[in-house]
Write a structure and sequence with these properties.
heterodimer; A: 138 residues; alpha/beta; Beta Polymerase, domain 2; four-stranded mixed β-sheet; two-stranded parallel ribbon; 3 helices; B: 179 residues; mainly alpha; Rossmann fold; 7 helices
Chain lengths: 138, 179
């Protein structure tokens, strides 16, 4: 892992190595990022950026880990076995961005209705229905 | 002038009665139909479901508490089970996530049952009408009988809404129709 990036409090990872990186950050006592604060995503058009925010209870340091994935096939391995806090976080990202977390033990919609919205509200391509009479894009 | 025994007996006798009250042996009798009595009873004793969704629920609670005292009208028996309730007050913002449970609660209520849409959100989405997650009016999912505008409506408005529903229930039964 790049020590310079670590010093900036930000680490850019890749979909292939993200799980390994996060496990290393959690388990290696040199890093000790034992706590997950948040998992969210950003719509950058062609790519989606998944953002993990980590925190060390020992040193109090924060670290942001980012992964870019293709918006055409938004998939990423689930990190739910590293932190249980991922269970809800990844489901929320799944509802809002339509990103599939492969291997998630319980991928039901969390904030969307049981059948799902049929759309992903936090994607830039989603247009609010406004007062046009279209009921919530349904 | 002397009062004869026969006249005394006549004065002590009761007033001439109508044939009906004579038959029933008393004065205070009202002739009506079962339908109207039921409507009168239903209209004067709604059992609302305890179903607050948002801030309107606080006005609903205030309405039931001492200062406004919904019990004056016979509507204070808020039921925690839909099986016991006949009035669903949709008090607050309904989201698409909450919509299936609310419809299920409505379906669990026995007939006859009524729905009040309380506040802007329940009527048409309110300030969240543009949101992706909010139902733009509960009348998209449930048959609403009375709409109470306000954000939130004051307890007096809820009382007025329930009294309006009472009028509706009793008028429908007077016409012989269903609700």
């Amino acid at each position: 892992m790049n020590e310079e990036m670590m010093a900036n409090g930000e680490l850019i990872s890749t979909p292939a190595t993200i799980k390994q990186d996060l496990r290393e950050l959690r388990d290696n006592p040199d890093y000790g990022f034992d706590r997950l604060l948040d998992v969210t995503a950003v719509d950058r058009g062609e790519i989606f950026e998944i953002v993990y925010r980590l925190n060390s209870l020992k040193t109090g340091r924060d670290l942001v880990v980012k992964v870019n994935i293709s918006a055409a096939s938004p998939k990423l391995p689930s990190m739910a076995d590293l932190w249980e806090a991922m269970l809800f976080g990844e489901r929320e990202v799944q509802d809002m961005f339509g990103i599939v977390f492969e291997g998630h033990p319980d991928p039901r919609p969390l904030l969307a209705p049981e059948e799902g919205f049929g759309f992903f509200p936090l994607r830039k391509s989603y247009v609010l229905p406004g007062r046009s009479g279209q009921p919530n894009g349904r | 002038m002397e009062v004869t025994t026969a006249e005394k007996q006549l004065l002590a006798a009761p007033e001439p009665q109508s044939r009906l009250s004579e038959l029933l042996g008393q004065d205070n009798v009202i002739v009506t139909s079962v339908e109207q009595v039921l409507a009168w009873a239903q209209g004067h004793s709604f059992w609302p479901l305890t179903s607050g969704l948002a801030c309107c629920a606080l006005e609903m609670m205030a309405c039931g508490a001492g200062r406004y005292d919904l019990a004056r009208f016979g509507y204070e028996v808020f039921r925690p089970s839909p099986r016991h309730a006949d009035l669903l007050i949709v008090a607050g913002t309904l989201t698409w996530k909450m919509a299936p449970p609310l419809v299920r609660l409505y379906e669990q209520m026995p007939e006859s049952k009524w729905v009040i849409a309380m506040g802007s959100c329940a009527i048409g989405g309110g300030p969240f009408v543009d949101s992706y997650s909010v139902v733009q009016g509960v009348d998209k999912l449930l048959p609403v009988d009375v709409y109470i505008p306000g954000c939130p409506p004051r307890p007096e408005a809820l009382m007025h809404g329930m009294l309006t529903l009472k009028e509706k229930v009793m008028a429908a039964k007077r016409r012989g129709g269903k609700k």
